[in-house]
Amino acid sequence: MAASTLTEVARLAGVSPATASRVLNGSARTPGPDIAQRVRQAADSLGYIPNAQAQGLAKSSSGLIGLIVHDIADPYFAAIARGVQDAAREQRRMVLLATTGGAPAEEKEAVAAFAARRADSIVIAGSRSARSEDLQDNAELAAELDRYCRNGGQVAVVGHPVVGASASEGYHVVAVPNEELAESLAASLAEGRDCDFVVIGGPEGLFTSDDRIRGFQAGLERAGRPAAELVRSAFNRSGGYEAGLALAQRLKAAGPARRPLCIFAVNDVMAIGATAALRAEGLRIPRDATIAGFDDIETLRDFRPALSTVRLPLEDIGRLATRATARGAAEHPDEAGPPITGAVTLRRSTEAGA
After folding, report:
1. pTM for this predicted structure
2. Whole-angstrom distance, CA of residue 211 vs CA of residue 128
3. 185 and 275: one domain?
4. Number of independent structural domains in the chain
5. What domain range includes position 196?
6. For position 13, which CATH number holds?
7. Peptide bond before 305: cis, by omega within 30 degrees of 0?
8. CATH label of the domain that carries residue 158
9. I need a surface site. Which of 55, 235, 246, 262 has the fewest CB within 10 A?
10. 115: Cβ–Cβ under 8 A, 6 or more apart, which residues?
11. pLDDT in tens, 281-327
């Protein structure tokens, strides 16, 4: 059965389509109460469903927030998405979701799609990339975001600014102190431990991973310890698992005389993957090696041994990003919330000699 049209509603109510639109799409120019009631009764009797984009044009607001994440199945992004949803409810807005796998080309397509649907604001969560293969896609994503902001859109990016973006208005960055927190983690792990350090990092050029690697190495240097060996892999659980297999082979080859090994994986899902690989090779945490992650994702509640990590307020990050894009936030920046902080959280996975 075909949907009823605005023209049919107007005909039944005995008014022009423009008048019916003003009543049903929320225009500030509204006709008299008797006419408005007649239009609404006609719409109810026909089962008319208002067009959301037409309402957005009439109100100069669609009530939509676009959220772009790398992978909603990753607990890191799921937690940020919950925060975005919570803040959207406060603002009586709805969230549209796009997952991109971390590719700036796909992020650009998502921004264009949200702009075409007149989303009031866009929140982007995920590591920025300076890899050579992403240069052109970064430029196109930046241009798309600049165009969106010039047309009145509001953007909040978690972590680092989008490479090349130049919009001076409507553009917000929710900074996360990854480097400082990784430095604190290294200092905590180095204290009182005689071990070799290894960092499992993501591909070179991923800003979040590189920040955490740089901070961890700085923390070791501050503690008077040699720099950690760096092993790079994919920035996900599979990458952690592959790196863990390589480290397991090294530990087994060294035999009982091996020096203690302390592993830092630059996010929790990589730490989970590395731990699973060590376990699959007959090694145990923290008996045969100690390990720490970063983020304190919700999954860790059920993970054994309890994983040492850096706790980030992920849901608060999502809320803060969403509030930063609300109307009036630029005039009242203090209302968006305090700067993001985190905390080193040591658990059983780094208990030396356990």
Report:
1. 0.81
2. 11
3. yes
4. 3
5. 178-311
6. 1.10.260.40
7. yes
8. 3.40.50.2300
9. 246
10. 144, 147, 148, 151, 153
11. 999 999 999 999 999 999 999 999 999 999 999 999 999 999 999 85
